[in-house]
C-alpha cells in the first residue's frame, strides 16, 4: 500500500522551503547513541555530512545519497521498512517534488528520517538521525556576536577531532561598512584582537573577511551585501589549537607578522 500524501501545488513549493528546513532540523542526529546507524537506501552510496553536528541546539548525524529510482519508490521503501518493524512512521510532501518520511524509535529515544528531493532527473535523499534524550549546550561562544537589526540567525556546531568549532549565519540590517564596524567593536569588547582583514570581489560585490583572535580561540567573519541595507554575515569560531598542530597563539603571531610584512613591501610597479 502506498503512503497517503498531501498534494502540494508547484507554486507553493518554493514558499515552503524554510518550513521544510525547519522540519529537517527536527529530524536531527545522535550524540549519545553514536553506535546507531543512519537510515540506508539499498544499492546507493551514502556520503556523510561532517561528523556529529549541532543545529539549533539539537544533535545531528547526516548523510546524502542519489538514485535513479522515483521519489515514490524511495519513500515506499522507508515506509514499509519502518512500519514492518512496528515503528510509528509519518509521511509528508507531494511525493513528486519533495517528501519527508520519519520514524520514531521510542525505546531507543531516537528519530530517523529521510528528506527527498528531485534534482537533474534523480532522487536526492538526506538521511538524518536525532537523539531525543540529549540536548546540546545552550551557550554559544562569545566570538559569535549578535548585532542589533538581525533578521535571521542560525547556529551550527561540529565536534570533529581535533577540536570543536561553531558557526553562525545571519542576515543583518545595515550596509557592509556599518556591519563591519559593529562586528569589530563587538569582538574587541569580548577581548578579541584584530589579526587581519581582506576584501574580494565576487560577482561585482565586495566580500570582506575579518580575522580576530584571543588566547586559544579564533573567529573568522565573512560579510557580503545581499541588497541595499542588508548584509549577510557568516562567522566561524574555533576553540582549540589548530589541526596542523601549531599552537593557536603562535599561528596568530605569525599571521600578524606576515600581514605586517605584506604592508611594508612595495607594490609592483611603484617607484623605489
Automatic annotation (TrEMBL):
> Which domain of life does the UniProt lineage start with?
Bacteria
Q: Where is this region: Disordered?
A: 240-272
Q: What's in the keyword line of the UniProt record?
A: Signal
Q: Signal peptide location in the record?
A: 1-34
Per the record, where are the segments of Basic and acidic residues compositional bias? 255-272
Task: Please state what the protein is called.
Answer: Uncharacterized protein
Q: Which organism is it from?
A: Pyxidicoccus fallax
Amino acid at each position: 500500500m502506498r503512503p497517503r500524501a498531501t498534494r502540494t501545488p508547484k507554486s507553493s513549493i518554493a514558499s515552503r522551503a524554510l518550513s521544510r528546513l525547519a522540519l529537517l532540523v527536527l529530524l536531527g542526529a545522535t550524540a549519545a547513541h553514536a553506535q546507531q546507524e543512519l537510515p540506508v537506501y539499498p544499492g546507493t552510496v551514502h556520503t556523510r555530512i561532517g561528523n556529529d553536528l549541532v543545529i539549533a541546539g539539537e544533535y545531528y548525524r547526516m548523510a546524502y545519497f542519489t538514485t535513479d529510482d522515483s521519489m515514490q519508490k524511495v519513500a515506499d521503501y522507508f515506509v514499509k521498512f519502518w512500519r514492518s518493524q512496528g515503528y510509528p512512521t509519518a509521511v509528508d510532501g507531494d511525493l513528486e517534488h519533495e517528501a519527508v518520511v520519519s520514524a520514531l524509535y521510542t525505546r531507543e529515544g531516537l528519530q530517523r528520517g529521510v528528506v527527498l528531493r528531485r534534482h537533474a532527473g534523480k532522487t536526492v535523499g538526506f538521511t538524518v538521525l536525532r537523539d531525543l534524550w540529549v540536548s546540546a549546550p545552550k551557550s554559544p561562544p562569545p566570538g559569535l556576536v549578535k548585532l542589533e537589526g538581525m533578521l535571521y540567525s542560525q547556529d551550527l556546531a561540529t565536534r570533529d577531532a581535533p577540536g570543536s568549532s561553531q558557526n553562525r549565519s545571519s542576515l543583518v540590517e545595515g550596509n557592509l561598512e556599518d556591519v563591519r564596524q559593529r562586528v569589530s567593536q563587538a569582538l574587541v569588547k569580548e577581548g578579541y584582537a584584530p589579526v587581519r582583514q581582506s576584501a574580494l570581489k565576487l560577482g561585482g560585490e565586495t566580500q570582506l573577511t575579518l580575522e580576530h583572535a584571543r588566547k586559544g580561540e579564533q573567529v573568522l567573519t565573512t560579510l557580503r551585501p545581499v541588497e541595499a541595507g542588508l548584509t549577510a554575515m557568516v562567522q566561524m569560531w574555533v576553540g582549540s589549537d589548530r589541526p596542523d598542530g601549531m599552537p593557536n597563539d603562535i599561528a596568530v603571531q605569525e599571521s600578524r607578522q606576515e600581514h605586517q610584512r605584506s604592508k611594508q613591501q612595495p607594490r609592483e610597479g611603484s617607484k623605489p
